[in-house]
Design brief:
- This protein is mainly alpha-helical.
- The chain is elongated and about 70 Å long.
């Protein structure tokens, strides 16, 4: 295998460097896009058990502890809960698009 590398000449060095950079990017993206980091089970449990105004405050407090797409969307929707349903839907969709942009950062490379 090393013989093939040397036979490839000077072009093999940039290819090897590009391969190492790609491996580093894939590892970084795998770490930041883990399912448990995006969909936090504790928040899902709290949101699934909404039954009173107290639960809404608990969910808001729980979401402020964590940083991620789901907590950001939930906090934004809870903060604007006094708006009509259609406006909340549009705000959630826009917040979702912004969160997707953050998650996709670096994927163009």
């Amino acid at each position: 295998m090393l013989e093939l590398f040397y036979r490839g000449g000077i072009m093999m060095y940039p290819l090897a460097l590009a391969s190492l950079i790609m491996i580093a990017i894939v590892i970084e993206r795998l770490g930041s896009l883990r399912r448990k980091k995006i969909i936090i089970p504790e928040i899902i449990n709290v949101v699934d058990q909404f039954s009173s105004e107290k639960d809404i405050e608990l969910a808001r407090n729980m979401c402020t502890k964590y940083n991620g797409p789901l907590p950001n969307i939930i906090v934004m929707s809870l903060d604007n809960s006094d708006l009509p349903r259609q406006e909340i839907r549009e705000l959630v969709e826009e917040q979702g698009r912004q969160e997707v942009r953050k998650l996709e950062k670096g994927l163009g490379i």
